[in-house]
Structure formats: C-alpha cells, structure tokens
Amino acid sequence: MRAITYSGYGHSDVLELTEQPEPRPGTDSVLVRVKAAAVNPVDWSIREGWLDRIVHVTFPVIPGWDVAGVVEQVGLDTPEYQVGDEVFGYVRKDWVQEGTLAEYVVAPVRTLARKPRSATFEEAAAVPLAGLTAYQTVHRSGVAAGQTVLVHAAAGGVGSFGVQIARALGARVIGTASEANHDWLRSLGVEPVLYGDGLVDAVRELAPDGVDVVLDYFGNGAVAQSVPLLKDGGVMTSILDASARDEHGGQYVWVRPSTEDLTALGELIDAGTVKVEVAQVFDLADAAAAHEASQTRHVRGKVVVRI
C-alpha cells in the first residue's frame, strides 16, 4: 500500500511517499480503507521529536491519528462493524508507528464510530482529534447554560469545535482570534476579541463580572493572562499548559479515544448544530505541504489529506 513515512525525526522534508505492507487487523480491530486523514499539531510535534519523552515512537513511522474511511476487513471479535461500514475515528494506539496517512490502517474498535451521514469523508476526517478534544474539555469543565466561557484560539482546529459545543449547551462564548476570523466567529454566535496585551481589558468590557470557564487551546501564556478574568469558583482548563491544573486548581486534558463521544459529535454534526471547517485538502503525495500548512498555526479549521 502507499503510505507517508519517516525514518527519523526532522522537518517536513523527512516525509516520503513509500510502499508498505498492508496491515492486518487483530481480534478487536478492523482494517479501514482510508478515504481521508487529517493533520494535527501533535503529528508534526512528534515528527520533530518534541514529544519523545512522552510518546513511544517506532521507526519507520506512518503519521496521523485522524481517519475517515470504509471498513475493509473485520477482526475475529468486532460485532460493532461489518465490511462496507463508513467510519471515522481517532486511531491513537499505545505507540506511534502505523498511522492514518496511508491507504489502509488497522483501527481498534474503541477508537471508531460511524461516520456522520451528512459529512463528506474529508469533513469527517477533520473531526476526531480536534472534535474529541473540544467535546471532552467542554464537558469536563462543566460548561452549562447561562455561563460565560472564554475560549482561546477560538478559530483553530479545536477551538472551532469548542465554541460550537459550548454554544449548543447554552453558554455565552467569548473567543480570542485574529481579526481576520472575527466575522466567521460571529457567524457561530461567538463574541470575538483580539489576542495581545489588550485582551484582558477587552474581555472585561464584555464580561465585567468575569467568566465562568476558560478553555485554553492556545498555550503561550494564555492561562496566566486569563487568571484575573476568572470568577471565584470558575474553572480553568488547558490542553497545552499544565499550570491550569497544578497552579490554578483546574484541569489539564490529553484527549482520549471514545466511541461514545465520537458518536455524540456525529449526532451534533448531522443535526447541523456543529459545522466542520476544512481549511485545505491535500493529496497524499503532498503530505509534507499539509504538515507545513498546519505548522504555520494560522489555519482556520483543519488541514486534511485525501487518500
């Protein structure tokens, strides 16, 4: 099968289009014929070697955790799926080696759900990691109707899901983003503010009494900047800064595969409550360019690779 691989850490030029053996599913896994896969910041962070201390890597690596495709073969004990089922998933295993930037991937059933009927394969591939991250941070933070939520990086891959999920729960959402994305955020019912030194004053002008929840999808000091904006008893949650948990009594979230949560996300998408923003679609041979596009960190929505 065709696959993107790299045999050592490095920049995007280590990515190569190669031929690899077709994988075989285990007892509780299925073989998925990949239609599309998404690129996430964690993919190029692993490729650069930045996560070597916390992620076990076995070379050569096929990168990618997000997938949308069709079940090609089932394992011995996988009653959840049949050949031909359309699925999407966050195929994170206990080590990094056989990822989703390939024509086929073996996916444990715990990492998959049925693809939203209304979504294209490219849209479905854009959902799992970012959508699950947003869904799990929003729900673990206890976001509820009537609350005011501050979302950092509101127009990014995770943030664009987070603001919509919070709005669906009845929360008021203030989101930080570059000015180019403000009109788009307004279309989602979000009150946008600019990043930078004036952020605290801008949020205070919109929410003089402070915010109930801070969702940090940006890092780079967003947690510290948000502390004076958080109400007493408010919740600080970050996916990038452990000080949210260690110093401010909040949470640090590392997303987990979950069929239940993916299914809930799919239902929100089919209901039209959550819209999927695909920024760019690349062919498999152009995976290096897809990594580079994601690595600019100025992408609205998600970067997707079509297989």
Automatic annotation (TrEMBL):
Pfam families per UniProt: ADH_N, ADH_zinc_N_2
Primary localization: cytoplasm
Gene Ontology CC: one annotated term: cytoplasm
SUPFAM superfamilies found in the cross-reference section: GroES-like (SSF50129), NAD(P)-binding Rossmann-fold domains (SSF51735)
Keywords assigned: Cytoplasm, NADP, RNA-binding
Signal peptide (UniProt feature, chain positions): none
Protein name as catalogued: NADP-dependent oxidoreductase
Organism: Xylanimonas protaetiae
